[in-house]
Amino acid sequence: MEIFEKTGKMALGSRLRLLTAKVTEDAARIYELYNVEFVPKWFPVFFVLSEDGERTITEIATEIGHSQPSVTKIIKEMAKVGLVKDNLKTADKRRNVVGLTEKGKTVAEKMIKVQCADIDAAINGIIAEATHNLWEAIAEWEFLLEQKSIFKRVQEQKKLRESKDVQIVNYQPQYQSAFRSLNEEWITTYFEMEENDYKVLDNPQEYILDKGGKIFVGLHDNQPIGVCALIKLENSQFDFEMAKMAVSPKAQGKNVGWLLGQEVINAAKEMGASKIYLESNMILKPAIKLYAKMGFEKITGHPTPYKRSNIQMQLILKH
Fold this sequence. Notes:
Blueprint: H1 2-7, H2 12-33, H3 43-52, E1 55-56, H4 57-64, H5 68-80, E2 84-85, E3 97-100, H6 102-129, H7 134-147, H8 150-163, E4 166-170, H9 176-190, H10 195-202, H11 204-209, E5 214-220, E6 223-232, E7 240-247, H12 256-270, E8 275-280, H13 285-294, E9 297-299, E10 311-316
Parallel strand pairs: 7-8
Antiparallel strand pairs: 1-3, 2-3, 4-5, 5-6, 6-7, 8-10, 9-10
Helix pairs in contact: 3-4, 4-5, 12-13
């Protein structure tokens, strides 16, 4: 249809619904063609019962990927036309066991032997005429979407696009207030400010830059939305510590943390570092996940000046 040429792939769902409606409409007419009193949406439930015999509602729902209420509704509809019976008695006293009636078994036999053979032949004819095999494509798409949903894929593209508008710059005195406020915001949200926080955040020049460290600032529309420091460590098995990473809640989803982290890691490499250290808290799950994505691994036994620190990590740059 011409409208889908205009909308592009954004209308994938609408196009699939339209195709589904056409197929379902034809399916209803096909059942009439074979004089079968049947509704297309019943088929998955009916097929499971014809193949496997008596099953519980839960078992059917799991098998066909439907909700239990949906299966229950379909069972009631099929029961009204005499295709199934529910609440059947079984040896283990289970309830809500469903099975085909004699009428249902007759319909199943006719459907499988005659109707399904004709449908398969017709579908194979379409596949032979088509450039692409839709049946195989559907299976492939189902697999790919099981691995990663369309929502997740769009979310990643949104992050990638928005991250291109983020600029990472070196710290300047004009960013001192942002460096402090962004860190104070996340710290006080989960914990409380400690003595070492005030010391470093109020005097970044003295405690970070003058000692051989670096601070990077993420800008969006020339406004600071994220910060991260690379602190030079003395008398330590580590060369640097990645610390004071903070991103404004308003900037979440723009990949700012990742961009800042990469800038810090690259700076450490340029200065010949072998290992970078960081510490955090396990309740900060998105942050821990981000560090792991960067290559940091959990370690233990390193002293910390912070009460809130309960996880330590390292990134080995070279052995």
